[in-house]
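Private note to self, pasted from the team thread so I don't lose it. Backbone tokens:
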């Protein structure tokens, strides 16, 4: 943790650059080291065994012990975790090999490990999360509900409440504090992937956990798959235990890239968000678009944006006037945007949620087939708008040709 040399707390921009680097001075290095050892020498059998026991049960390494084995502990991963924890105003963080591995560990730690097998899930959620819960693969029983129904959905055997805000792909804002109030004593996990710690800190609104698909904004360059959960030290122990046993750990090279990525996260978010706002302003006047989904576009009637976020983020969804046919043509006609799943990187992506990211979601909860999702990157906003304008023109001319044929 960087200690402020001043009386005032450090600004999040400063924390993003300096956090998780507390041991570098003693190591005599300036850039983050990458520790690739899969195994570590043991001082003697007794201390080796004690170290193993401490970490396999979710604890931290013991003094004068050994890190034993990479599945239990890795210094490069631990530095990234410390940095993310500080940015999320949390005591601790635990990193995983993907966002879904992180969600799996959260579900197992809060249900199978506690004997409470019921989960309340607030829709909409990322399709993979919806599928994981709905499939019952982890032995859970799930009640999907609206945010206002969390209180009545809680049962004595409820171990976890899952929610996402802004939600994927419709950018719905969900009132975190209201869900926490409805959940009572049941721990709430917020998927904070879209907002990042720069725009939203769920723990400040009473949640037990903030989860990220670190694959997205935290990495920011589309070259790492990872997940991370910020939480209390007590919950971190439960999550590290699941990670040690099930093996969903993050590779140190990925952790290094993520930690480096955190340093530019505030600037990337600010610029990507500004670009997104320009694209939204252009989209709302376009006849090809039926509706644009973007936080605050409806005027924030419940004040959720104002209360829990520090910005809109850079994700946009739009419903095309020509239905699925128009959506599919736009996705294929863009040039600067890449037609691809994922989000949050420096380059802009476009994808069709109903066919891809939300394909496993039951039909009645799946996004509209006319909806496309845009992840806005760091390109010039004017160039991105010109690309969409060209794609819309192609679709318009195709529609004209078809109606002439009819
Ligand atoms: C909001 C959200 N949560 C979780 C995930 C899953 O993360 P990963 O792909 O890193 O497993 C995704 C992936 O797209 C996502 O968009």
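Design output:
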């Amino acid at each position: 943790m960087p200690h402020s040399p001043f009386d005032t707390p450090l600004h999040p921009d400063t924390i993003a650059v300096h956090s998780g680097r507390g041991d570098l001075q003693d190591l005599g290095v300036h850039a983050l080291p990458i520790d690739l050892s899969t195994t570590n020498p043991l001082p003697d059998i007794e201390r080796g065994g004690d170290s193993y026991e401490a970490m396999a049960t979710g604890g931290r390494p013991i003094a004068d012990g050994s890190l034993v084995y990479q599945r239990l502990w890795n210094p490069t991963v631990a530095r990234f975790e410390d940095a993310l924890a500080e940015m999320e105003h949390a005591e601790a963080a635990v990193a995983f090999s993907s966002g879904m591995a992180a969600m799996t560990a959260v579900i197992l730690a809060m249900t199978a490990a506690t004997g409470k097998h019921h989960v309340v899930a607030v829709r909409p959620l990322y399709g993979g999360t919806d599928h994981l819960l709905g499939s019952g693969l982890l032995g859970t029983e799930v009640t999907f509900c609206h945010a206002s129904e969390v209180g009545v959905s809680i049962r004595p055997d409820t171990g976890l409440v899952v929610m996402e805000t802004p939600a994927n792909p419709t950018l719905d804002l969900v009132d975190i504090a209201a869900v926490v109030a409805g959940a009572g004593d049941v721990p709430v996990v917020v998927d904070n992937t879209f907002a990042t710690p720069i725009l939203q800190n769920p723990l400040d609104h009473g949640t037990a956990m903030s989860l990220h698909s670190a694959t997205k904004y935290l990495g920011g360059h589309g070259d790492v798959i990872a997940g991370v959960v910020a939480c209390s030290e007590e919950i971190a122990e439960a999550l590290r235990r699941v990670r040690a046993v099930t093996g969903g750990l993050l590779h140190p090279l990925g952790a290094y890239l993520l930690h480096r990525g955190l340093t530019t996260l505030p600037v990337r978010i600010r610029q990507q968000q500004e670009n997104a706002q320009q694209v939204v302003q252009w989209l709302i006047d376009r006849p090809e678009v039926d509706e644009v989904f973007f936080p605050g576009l409806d005027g924030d009637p419940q004040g959720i944006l104002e209360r829990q976020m520090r910005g809109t983020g850079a994700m946009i969804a739009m419903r095309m006037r020509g239905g699925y046919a128009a959506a599919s043509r736009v996705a294929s006609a863009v040039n600067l945007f890449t037609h691809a799943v994922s989000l949050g990187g420096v380059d802009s992506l476009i994808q069709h949620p109903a066919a891809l990211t939300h394909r496993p979601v039951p039909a009645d909860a799946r996004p509209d087939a006319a909806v496309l999702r845009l992840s806005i990157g760091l390109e010039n906003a004017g160039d991105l708008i010109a690309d969409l304008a060209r794609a819309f023109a192609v679709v318009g001319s195709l529609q004209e040709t078809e109606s002439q044929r009819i």
